[in-house]
Write a structure and sequence with these properties.
Layout (H helix, E strand, L loop, with lengths): L3 E6 L3 E6 L18 E9 L6 E10 L2 E2 L13 H4 L5 E4 L13 E4 L5 E4 L1 E10 L10 E8 L25 H12 L5 E8 L2 E3 L2 H4 L5 H10 L10 H13 L6 E8 L13 H10 L8 E6 L16 H9 L3 E5 L4 H4 L3 H8 L2 E9 L9 E13 L2 E7 L1 E3 L5 E3 L2 E5 L1
Parallel strand pairs: 10-11, 10-13, 13-14, 14-15
Antiparallel strand pairs: 1-2, 2-18, 3-4, 4-5, 4-16, 6-17, 7-8, 7-17, 9-16, 11-12, 17-18, 17-21, 19-20
Length: 410
């Protein structure tokens, strides 16, 4: 059977593979729902030794997610009845294809020595944010935005300005969130909170759940100015839960949290306070509050410690324990150039397909510590196969995209 490949945009690059002899949608109405793209915004460890990994998978028609009850063009059964875990396959990402590894993935660990990893799909479910029982409750989207000095290159402790230290010098995060707000369904309730200088800015005019998008958009405009101080993440999490989410217990909340990380010496880093805040979101009697973490890497500057750059285990724990997502951005340009970031976040608010996979990362040769995993995820649905690579790829002479997933092995 002959195949031909088309390049599509993705968090990596998606490849569409089909055969005119077995594609059940050929010749049917192209305006009806179809399967056009797969993206993998992240993954969480299901076991501390990484013996099982749960990949987050989104199947899209353009920018709209395919949910379990979605009916595809030319199919009589909904997606939830068509899709099984053995419709997924892992293989080497294109950049690793010539590396000589026989396994389906390549891991890079503390010793920077690449090693092959076997991945085997073992389970699949669709996880609605807040649980399936609450999916029809009023949706509350709380946007928590870091407004600390590091975003603009202002030292959080001294106030000194150095543009080379700015993690988002062109305010591209603001453009991203403005577009996100504009494209969310009109029946969503929205709330906006910012945090800097030890405090969470929870003002009634912006934090009170509201459907009027213009109010939130104006609040985002105001966040283009006056960044300063440290990143009081723990306090912001606690205050937002106590003052915004809990008083609106009839709603189904999801938090979209943006930060470029917590500075050494910030109270969020001290004495178990952060872990208690995470538990307040994850172990809540009314159900976990999913937190979608968008973590922007700090600027590459000699004065910024190496440990304050790269992926962060605490932020990943916040996302994974609450049933959310950890999305790492190597640079602020991703906010405006990554075509898959908007659909990844907007659709993740509803939920995600969770693909469970056995992993040989549990083997003794993989020591405790942080591990970056590159692979390619392929899914076959309704006669079409789409694949997206999770890898580090060069975009220009000095720019890379990095869609690998990261885990901290214990």
């Amino acid at each position: 059977m002959r195949r031909r490949n088309l390049v599509l945009s993705g968090l990596g690059v998606a490849t569409l593979m089909f055969s005119s002899g077995c594609d059940s949608t050929v010749g049917l109405d192209p305006t009806r729902t179809s399967f056009t793209k797969v993206i993998v915004p992240g993954a969480c460890k299901a076991q501390d030794d990484l013996g099982q990994i749960d990949f987050s998978v989104m199947l899209l028609d353009g920018t709209r997610a395919l949910l379990p009850d979605t009916r595809l063009n030319g199919e009589f059964a909904p997606v939830g009845e068509l899709l099984e875990f053995d419709d997924f396959r892992f293989s080497l990402a294109p950049n690793d294809a010539g590396s000589g590894f026989a396994q389906a993935a390549v891991a890079l660990g503390p010793d920077a020595m690449p090693r092959g990893v076997d991945l085997n799909p073992i389970g699949l479910e669709f996880a609605y944010s807040g649980g399936e029982d609450r999916r029809r409750d009023p949706r509350l989207v709380v946007m928590m935005l870091d407004h600390s000095g590091s975003l603009a290159g202002i030292d959080p402790f001294t106030g000194d300005y150095d543009p080379g230290k700015a993690s988002d010098p062109n305010e591209q995060r603001i453009s991203f969130f403005q577009q996100l707000v504009s494209t969310l369904p009109d029946d969503y309730l929205l709330s906006l909170v910012s945090f800097k200088e030890g405090l969470a800015n929870i003002t009634p005019d912006l934090s009170t759940p509201i459907r009027n998008k213009s109010v939130i958009l104006e609040g985002l405009n105001e966040l283009q100015f006056d960044q300063r101080g440290t990143t009081p993440l723990t306090r912001a999490l606690n205050d937002t839960r106590n003052r915004v989410i809990e008083p609106n217990g009839n709603m189904n909340p999801v938090v979209v949290l943006f930060t470029d990380g917590v500075e050494a010496g910030d109270p969020s880093d001290a004495g178990g306070q952060f872990e208690e805040a995470v538990a307040g979101y994850a172990d809540r009697a009314a159900g976990a509050i999913p937190v979608i973490v968008i973590h922007l890497q700090r600027a590459d500057h000699p004065d910024i410690p190496a440990e304050q750059r790269g992926r962060n285990a605490k932020l990943a724990e916040l996302a994974c324990r609450t049933g959310g997502e950890y999305i790492f951005l190597p640079n602020a340009d991703e906010f405006t150039t990554n075509n898959n970031l908007q659909p990844a976040v907007s659709n993740r608010i509803v939920g995600v397909w969770r693909l469970a996979a056995e992993s040989t990362l549990s083997n003794a040769e993989f020591e405790p510590g942080g591990w970056l995993l590159s692979t390619q995820v392929e899914v076959t649905l309704a006669g079409r196969s789409l694949a997206t690579p999770l890898q580090r790829a060069r975009e220009s002479s000095d720019e890379f995209t990095d869609t690998r997933v990261w885990f901290s092995k214990e």
